[in-house]
Each structure stands twice: as C-alpha cells, then as structure tokens.
Amino acid sequence: MNLQKEYWNKIYESILDKKLKYDPWLDKYENILMKSKDTPIIDLGCGFGNDTLYLKERKYEVISCDFSEKALRRLSNFIDNLNVKCFDMKDGLPFQDSSAKVIISDLSLHYFTWNETQDILKEIKRVLINEGTLICRVNSTRDMNYGAGQGIKIEENFYNIDGNLKRFFNESQLRELFREWDILYIMETEINRYNMSKIAWEISIKKM
After folding, report:
1. How big is the chain by its Cα radius of gyration, in Å?
2. What is the percent of the chain where pLDDT is above 90?
3. In this protein, which residues make up the domain named Methyltransferase type (predicted)?
4. Which residues contact 136 (CB under 8 A, 6 or more apart)?
5. For the whole model, what pTM was predicted?
6. What's the average model confidence in pLDDT over 77-89?
7. Does residue 67 have a pLDDT over 80?
8. Which residue of 101, 119, 164, 206 is 20 to 30 Å from 34, comparing CA positions?
C-alpha cells in the first residue's frame, strides 16, 4: 500500500466519530461560489470534510474527493447522500473536460514533487470551464509548526518528514506555478489547524 495513503487512513480511522468543524475562509469567495449553483463544486482532497460541510450547508452540490477511502467513509457518516470519488491526484482527475466551474483544494496540493504538482494543475485546468476558478490553500515555507525546512530534503522546499512527504511554498514559487493562470488573490495567512497555528498561502486563480 502507498505509505502516504496508509498514514492518512490511520488518521481518519482514529477520528471516525470526531465531528466536522470548519473555519469560514471561503466566505470571501461567495461571488465565485455562486457561479456554481447549477454545477457541482469539486472538493479535491477533501480530507476531514470541513469544506464539504461548509458548502453543503449553503445548498451547493459537492463532489468530495480523496485518496483515503477511510476519509470518505467517515465523511459519509456525517453527511447523507454524499457524492464521493476515491482516487490519487497523481493518476489524473476522473472528470470530463470543462465539467466544473469551481474546484476547491484545501491543504491538499502540497504533497507532490514539482513535476507532479504541475501535472495536477494541468488536470485541474482541463476539468475547469473557461474562466473557471481554483480556490486553494497550501503550506508556506514559514509553516514551522508543521515541518517547514525539516526532514530529508528531496527538492527545494519538498521534504520527507518521518516518511511523510510535504511541500512548502514561497510566493515566487506559487507565481511560477500559476503563471499561466489569472491570479485573483494570493495572500499568506495564519490559521488554526489541528490545535496549532499554521502558516499557509491562500490563492484564488482563474483559468485563462
């Protein structure tokens, strides 16, 4: 089994009964989200399911995606009739071309090599309609509480930390990664995650 998948399966198995709780970071994107009232929003790497819950409470249709079947099983225990897809982003996205208006990826795009990350972005662009939007958060290079600069270096700002692969981004790397997109919003922010302060980048980009 993929060691990353095994790690996350154990995490979700250990918190099966822990209730969902979200922070309102998506509030500022209401105008973007509203454009997808008639089309399911893809929650890519939904994990704990916080953003799925946020969207479902506001009557959006959501496709909740993760490579951990334990995460999706846990989430289905809290939300009825949930539309889920289990897959590894490195294998591509199982969606038709130009089939989504909005994709959300909250802390799920920073586990890959640079080339893999670029390939995943190409897949996201393929799935989005013209002028469709990706809203995401990723690790910052200042995220010291969660391993920035620690472990065995694989690539610049990409580390093996006790068998867990993690990437951390600075602004110049993000602007390079998204240079073929229209960057609507990019800001480094401090959030509370897993009971500790976390430094992350929050980004909204539009397919050109």
Report:
1. 16
2. 84
3. 43-136
4. 104, 105, 106, 108, 109, 202, 203, 204
5. 0.94
6. 94
7. yes
8. 119
Find the length of the chain.
Answer: 208
Lowest mean pLDDT among 146-150, 160-164, 179-183, 197-201: 160-164
Q: Residue for token digits 């989504």?
A: 100
CB 140 within 8 A of CB 166: no
Residues 109-139 have pLDDT tens digits of 999 999 999 999 999 999 999 999 999 999 9
Distance (Å, whole) CA 163 – CA 141? 19
* Domain with residues 3-207, CATH architecture: 3-Layer(aba) Sandwich (3.40)
Q: Where are the domains of the chain?
A: 3-207
Tokens of 52: 């799925």
